[in-house]
Design brief:
The protein is of the alpha/beta class and about 325 residues long. The chain has a domain at about 10-230: TIM Barrel, CATH 3.20.20.70. About 45% of the residues lie in helices and about 10% in strands. The chain has helices at about 25-35, 55-70, 85-100, 120-130, 150-160, 175-185, 200-205, 220-230, 235-255, 260-265, 285-295; strands at about 10, 45, 75-80, 105, 110, 115, 135-140, 165-170, 190-195, 210. An 8-stranded parallel β-sheet has the order 1-10-9-8-7-4-3-2. Helix 5 (about 150-160) runs parallel beside helix 6 and helix 8 runs antiparallel to helix 9 (about 235-255). The protein is globular.
């Protein structure tokens, strides 16, 4: 496997709204600062856990520009550019690259419950994206697309399509698929990654995953697992995973997309945790259970009143981070 340019914890940045559904860019910037200060090796924006499906095209552009300029090179940022149309997806990806994206993440073309494309067109889709940009493409292999992506196809894409070299595997049996992808793809697979809120993080790292794309509420917790594993301390990685698993499970099976915003609102990082209509708000009982579970672990997101930097000692980063003033 080629030494990866990007590895570690790259959580998804939630999109922050006001109570009436408008974009809240002030909260958005505080959210990004928190996630970097909590130890994120990088960030991903406009993903499903960013509620990308309720955003207008113009809002996508506003968020991409505002977040990338605010991050200002402190960490690499992955921009999700998924679209059914090849031309539209390629143009989204070009604009993301122009704004400073380190990578784009793309799901296979799908629409609704039944519209999918055959394998030849799927291969052409990703080849066209690769021709349009000069930064890596991460293929998101997630059940929500309803598209089966065999490991053999992903490996072929890695070998034959220049920019396709990262893979976020979120399907059932992810560890087995990661192993087969690495076996079939060899050095062409630069970044085999875990996803799905880290619910299978430990078996996936054992299978060779070098990155994890999780929810954004507690990167400090996920870093404890990944840092120990990368240092070769499997016992410490297991212990950290066992400690954080109740919260990981609560996000994966109960709180879902709104988990990160609930935690950040509880800690004063953001002003409002509401989703945009018609997505339903989190049930109060689910939220109460989430917060109770989180407070047993004391993640920085629950530090209180935006004081996450004082919650614990700073988490080290591989490179110095520069913060642009809002």
């Amino acid at each position: 496997m080629t030494a990866p340019r990007y590895r570690g914890v790259f959580p998804v940045v939630p999109t922050t709204f006001t109570e009436d559904g408008a974009l809240d860019l002030d909260s958005q910037k505080r959210c990004v600062d928190f996630m970097i200060d909590a130890g994120s090796d990088g960030l991903c924006i406009l993903a499903n856990f960013s509620e990308q499906f309720v955003l207008a095209d113009e809002e996508r552009e506003v968020l991409t520009r505002a977040i990338l300029r605010h991050v200002d090179g402190r960490v690499p940022v992955i921009v999700t550019t998924t679209h059914f149309g090849t031309r539209v997806c390629a143009e989204r990806s070009r604009r993301a690259q122009e704004e400073g994206a380190a990578m784009v993440m793309v799901m296979p073309p799908y629409h609704g419950a039944t519209l999918r494309v055959p394998e030849p067109q799927l291969f052409e889709f990703f080849a066209s994206l690769s021709d349009a940009i000069d930064i890596p493409i991460m293929v998101q292999d997630a059940p929500v697309s309803g598209t089966v992506l065999p490991a053999a196809l992903l490996a072929r894409m890695a070998r034959e399509i220049e920019q396709v070299c990262y893979f976020k595997i979120e399907t059932a049996g992810a560890a087995s698929k990661l192993r087969e992808l690495l076996r079939a793809g060899g050095d062409a697979v630069e970044g085999p990654w875990d996803g799905e809120e880290a619910i299978t993080l430990l078996p996936d790292t054992e299978a060779g995953a070098t990155g994890s794309m999780t929810g954004g509420g507690y990167p400090d917790g996920i870093r404890q697992v990944m840092d120990a594993w990368r240092a070769g301390n499997r016992e410490a990685a297991f212990d950290a995973y066992a400690r954080w698993l109740p919260l990981i499970n609560y996000e994966n099976r109960q709180g879902g997309i709104l988990t990160a915003k609930a935690l950040m609102k509880e800690g004063g990082v953001i002003a409002c945790e509401a989703p945009r209509h018609p997505f339903p708000a989190m049930h109060p009982a689910v939220r109460a259970g989430l917060i109770a579970t989180a407070k047993r672990l004391d993640p920085r997101s629950c530090a209180g009143a935006g004081d996450w930097n004082a919650a614990s000692a700073p988490i080290s980063h591989p490179q110095p981070r520069r913060r642009r003033q809002p």
